[in-house]
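In the current project phase, work has continued on tokenised descriptions of protein folds. One protein thus recorded appears below exactly as we store it.

——
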Amino acid sequence: MSACATDGWVETQTKAVLVPQSNVSAGKIATASQAWTINIADAPPVNALVTPLESTKQLHIVISLKLRNEAQLDTFLHDLNQSGSPVYGKFLTPQQFKEAYAPTDSQLQAVVAHLQQAGFAHIQPAPNNLLISADGNATNIAAAFRTQIRQFTTPEGRQQFANDAPVQVPQTLGDTVGAVLGLQNVHGPQASIESTSPITKSNALSVSVTDPAQYTKVYDAGSTPSGVNTSVAVICQGNGDMSGLVDALNAYTDQEHLPRVLTTLVAITDGVGQGTVYPFSPPGCWPETIVGVSGGLAKLTAYVGAVQVGSYLTEATLTAMYNRAVTDNRAKIIHSAYNQDETWAHNSGAQTADDTIFKQAVAQGQTFVVPSGDFGVYESYAGVIYQKDLSKYSVSEPASSPYVVAVGATNAAVNQDFSWAGESVFSATFDYWQGDMYGSGGGASLFERAPIWQSDALGRAVTMRVVPDLAFDRGGYYGGATGNASAIFAGIWARIQSANNNSLGLPTERMYQHFSKDPAPTHDIVGGYNGIYTGGTPSFTGYRCTLTWDYCTGWGSLDIAKFSDYVTQYWGTPRGNVYASYFVWPIPDLGSVAGPIIIRDRSGHCPPTLRVEAKITHPHRGDLRITLVAPNGVRMVLKQPDPNDSGANIDQIWTVDAATFPANGKWQLWVDDSFKGNTGTLDQWSLGF
């Protein structure tokens, strides 16, 4: 903020989109011959006349406000998902969140007064004080934010406008205003396009999924309860009467003999989309896939943003739709198939604005599920890679947010009975004639720090948020790959929430904590890559699918029934407070091994009935001494050697009074071989709180 503070104004997170190529002061009116360019790396000059936007043109903007007490909120979000924490599972209501972490009414009113003074109309604060929407023209924008709005016509005939300087606000509002959205239509979020015809994707077994309900066989729902106790929201776009969405969903559930889903359409009419992309595109919200996989829902709420034919949702409208879904708090799961290049979203301030909203969702126990992107590692190029720098990788937003579940895309091979037969990453498909490519998005964020649970699971070398978290079948042939995949997980998570009384929060932290030690519910996907084949050295760009977590498919896909049992075992009660090590440690003859478990997420001391469970393979268990070592160095012998015990192997649980020991820290299970003649392995051990 200090860059411009000398004259009483400070910059927000919203940067300039249109910048002069020569030395023209930002915010000044340039001559018609002035050369301009889009504010991204290596962008060419704008090949069109750039003029000030006429004052009669009305723009709809959304101002994102900063959180209050954000450090305390981050601590709360961490403790919210930690077994043993006093706030574990105690989700907030929207009102509780507002009182504790949202800007105060006086802070909000100061921003409203600033907008009024600049001449804005229809000023509407959101119920949680995190957003303010308003309508104004270029003159109002220049007065309020010290930036000019300019316009030009692209060679394709599209009318575009953008701000020519970073957005500023008076210094008195610097601690309140985070970003201003709606000042440009050069770029914006797009949804994966839904397939409107049966899927004709081929695989080695010549069996394809043509109905979302078949995914319950592919991913083995088994006896997992349906999602009929869980409510879901979807983010859609529409250009008129959206009753067809309800009719189509009812027709689908009737066809599948599933219960009809009570569906509510919530129209978002402010900020009609003004970009020109895909005329007559489907709504992009995948309700049939979610319901087919979930087997039913308690309720579906479709937030439908109004767009003109041939348009897409603006950043301002999409962020407002996210916020509406969170403040309404009707749904446990919110699915959005919209995404855009992360750098664009960062520079516009949309990334900051969305993260603010996603944090409230996590605090309320809501889970956003989003696609990782359909353009492989070239999200910034939107897949158009002809004559582009192929060493420049990018990821999509909001997938890069630590507060969402990001889902990549695969090609699932199925048997004749639709059971899972294998899976491969949706590797990049490259059109040599057009220079276009599609593939499952994945990589490392340029701006979002890796949450500690991701660094702990993947290694401390991972310092930035990496995606995806999971991956499922892509469905359609080209676009829409990760949109279908993310909808599959939304349906799966509805089942899991219903089976657990909707008591679970954002699942990513626990997935990383446990999958890194026991990946039993996952289908690990190996082979393929999410860049393009080059024929050079190396022969491909992007990332290759490897064992365990990777940048193509994350942890892979899930066996639903196994995942449900896994959640019950590790995330529920009382086994939800279990910390386990599944690394196999060799026990040498007359030697020792110490298998560690490191706990970082529990406060206070251990219970007086700490459960210690160990599974050991050894032909003569009487040779072994087993000792538990607490983080404070205290040693507790659980089993002494016994030469008279000639039995094999150990599978035992001990109860230890550990009430005086700290829970956090490095625990060790020492196994000593006291007699010569045999070796073995410490297969796994766990601590149950």
Observations:
- The two ends are 46 Å apart (CA to CA).
- Confidence is low (pLDDT under 50) at residues 23-32, 194-205, 273-281.
